[in-house]
Amino acid sequence: MGKNLIYITLLLLLGAAVSCGNNQNKPTETQESTVPDKSIAAPAVTISKSIFPIGDKNFKQGDTINIGFESDKQIDSAFLYLNGVQNTLPPTDKQWTIETSGETPVGKTGFRIELFSDGHKESRSGSFTLLPAAAPKDYRAAIVRTYPHSRNAYTQGLEFYKGKLYESSGEYDKSYVHILNFPSMKAEQEENLDARYFAEGLTFLNDQMYLLTWKENTCFILDPESLNELERKSYNTEGWGITTDGEVLYMSDGTHYISVLDPDTFSTIRTIQVYTPEGSIPYINELEWINGEIWANVYGFDIILRINPVTGAVNGIVHAPGLLERSDIRPETDVLNGIAYDKEHNKIYVTGKNWPKLFEIAISPAK
Length: 367
Known about the structure:
Largest sheet: 8 strands, mixed
Radius of gyration: 24 Å
Distance between the termini: 11 Å
Shape: elongated
């Protein structure tokens, strides 16, 4: 399938996710104390004729973005609020200039302009979307080796840790995490979750396992050897996939957002928006950190995204259709989900929910 058709299909079937954005394009900062005393502001009046850009205009990385206003009144002061940062203008200017590059995070960004004139204040809001400058490259997944996999595993998280393969399985009253001997794929140890929890993705950081739950806003931190619970962390979104670069955590919630989390406090450091030049890609699911990229399943599709963790731009799309034989498919066989990277041997493995097989795959450019 060609790139354009792939993007159109994704966008039509998935829909473009709407967000307020956390784009990190930051003009020169000034201090909040430069805002005039709001006690002088009279009831709202019209100071500007219009602001720009309007209508959520699209730009591409490398573009210059002008944000401003039109007014025939004497402006005493003007402020732009962008990504929580306040930016001022000289009274004679009517626009802010933002330079972007290939390293500028992509996505939708909201902004607010505050104008003060003759003791009156006006506040107006707008937005714009920054798209990746380059289209993602297409890749194909080819089967190298096949291993057995439990048809009863509704795979959510899949990751190697100290030579063992760890897997979490979802669904209410059926969720568990187990340790698999590799390559025999025989379960050595298993821990069931309470019936009220739906297990999701897992990852390892600082010799601890982080195990998400779907709608329960709870991350279990477990001892990797015993699978005993050490503590719990809370978050205010759904939990889908999780991975780490060795310092921070990256968590998906089923939208086109990936949250970068402090592993100690679980507070959000920043937010990544996943975009191609055609728009946002929602339903980001299981995550794996591979050679400086976030690899992500897209729920319901036989593709894996290769995401730039700084900008959110999709660097590549790995197409993985037809991994299962027809004879492998039963009514309970569900979607592709689960990516495990064996860093020691530089090998990638994938499986799916209730799939009878785990596959080592090789990635090559699509022709």
